[in-house]
Amino acid sequence: MGLTLTEKILRAHLVDGEYVKGQEIGIRIDQTLTQDATGTMAYLEFEAIGVPRVKTERSVAYIDHNTLQNGFENADDHRFIGSVAKKHGIYFSRPGNGICHQVHLERFGIPGKTLIGSDSHTPTGGGIGMIAIGAGGLDVAVAMGGGAYYITCPKVVRVELTGKLSPWVSAKDVILEVLRRMSVKGGVGKVIEYCGEGVKTLSVPERATITNMGAELGATTSIFPSDEITKQFLKAQCREEVWTPLSADDDAEYDEEFTIDLSELVPLAACPHSPDNVKTTHEIGKLKIDQVCIGSCTNSSLLDMLKVAHILKGKTVHPDVSLSIAPGSKQVLNMLAQNGALSDLIEAGARILESACGPCIGMGQSPNSKGISLRTFNRNFEGRSGTKDGQIYLVSPETAAASAITGYLTDPRELGDMPEFRLPEIFTINDNMVVPPVSEEEMDSVEILRGPNIKPYPETSPLPETIDAAVSLKVGDNITTDHIMPAGAKILPLRSNIPKISQHCFAVCDETFPERAKALGKSIIVGGSNYGQGSSREHAALAPLYLGVKAVIVKSFARIHRANLVNAGILPLTFVNESDYDKISQGDQLVLADIRKSVEEGRSELTVINRTKGIEIPVLCELSGRTKDIILAGGLLDYTRENMK
Length: 645
Ligand code: MIC
Ligand code: SF4
Description:
With 645 residues, the protein is an alpha/beta fold. It is built from 22 helices and 27 strands. The strands form six sheets. It has a seven-stranded mixed barrel with strand order 21-22-23-24-27-26-25. A six-stranded mixed β-sheet has the order 7-6-3-4-5-20, sandwiched between helices. Helix 21 packs across helix 22 (636-644). The longest helix has 17 residues, at 72-88. The protein is globular. The mean pLDDT is 97. The structure holds alpha-methylisocitric acid and iron/sulfur cluster. Iron/sulfur cluster binds next to loops.
């Protein structure tokens, strides 16, 4: 039996465990990336681990999220990250150089390599045939120190692409179709592998749009083969030498498969407030809009921007619409300037933003009250835009640009004939905004620049004998990390200060939570299914840790958040019977008796005693040998330190 591409790469990197689906495996990590909103904490953790130089083949620290500097905090964090990078062997991509995933694809990604990044959209690298996975900052810190990265050995889904996209239908519509079919939890425990004749019709930036937004499926990652098109892209980036051909064997067996005929796809949109709430633009109808934002790591490539510039050329943005555009990297912005397309955008009235995440993470451009905003981004969770009642629709750049002119949601096919958009034979290469690290001999001369807002990792403690604590919060299904630890321009500057940022924990659901949790001293959170979906931010675990949360009991977890809870030493439990969710109320006093002994003995079926209601509830505590030891030690940091002695 042949192998899937996923299995080939994972097997070649296997350093711990057996390649058995559903079991935990440890893989060697070739490359890492961090961004600034998760980076300060990741580098504090790296320092705490105490390895002097990164042991990866390539590690890059990007500054792209916290680029609004309306106070000293973000600028201090940038300086801190820059100094750590310089000292410890990490390349530093300065603010202005672009969004981590876009730049990494252009300048650093290598087919067949493994990459983990402290950002959930790291799977963008799958567009050139990498196994690229989003992870918590601490996992990235451990990988930089040479440690393995652990995942559940995934199932592999084959998505066969046939046909060719119709004019003005876009890669974004492909991934929105996959989301419509699989939902935001359909990818949990799986890698999505794209195959078939249709793959050859998609350029690397198009493939990267699809793998990027595979994060919204909850998938471990997504991957395309590395073929002649990949080679061309790398050649145009003057990196042809890193190319290798990679694909699945013809007789590879998959766990699931389905086909998408690209020629049948039509322009789609994800409606508020979930990326899988997908409808055709026709089903939604002539929706009047207030704002259009084009950019983000999903859709900010040169190809996307050239299409947008073509649509806007000679037109004016509708008087009722504010259009902002953030090209994904300095390379993209520079090439738009060189070929004149930037002028088309400016002439039309677009508000050009710096090459960064910007509005995608609520760093500016929040829409007006109840504002309807079309965005080429990947997430439309409630409140994420910074406007609580904002209505965000996720669309392709083509749909976004066409709508910016008409003032209502517009099917871009109404634009008529589409010219052929080609990637350049050669991109403009200038890595002058990437600072290389100093040599090992010089590292002692580098001073680490620590600003006053940078506070240490919160205190941890080993798993106690018994957990006897009240439920400080009960929430429903599909709680995102944007609910647990909101982002946005006001809160993001606190990412390096856990005591302060924890005051905003669960602000979207219940503003009284932090105070209540602190007053209780120790507590438990109860949630529904797909708890913790969305980002990789470990702050969604570190803030609860700081506030005394000892365990989280839910119907099901999203992958990265569950790992972050374990890393923070918080016990992740699931209901054996989902209906038992109804048997616990906020405020109930719960007991997990002899929990330390049970975990030590590796017992997975445990009983929670609800003392308030006088009932017992069975829960699952599914920990592998390694995660068991991490929980017992009080988290991954303590575990790693102990194991490195
Ligand atoms: C996001 O898109 O939600 C973010 C901001 O990039 C996060 C990381 C973070 O919260 O810093 C992600 O996707 O992991
Ligand atoms: Fe940045 Fe948005 Fe991409 Fe997250 S999803 S990395 S905030 S552009």
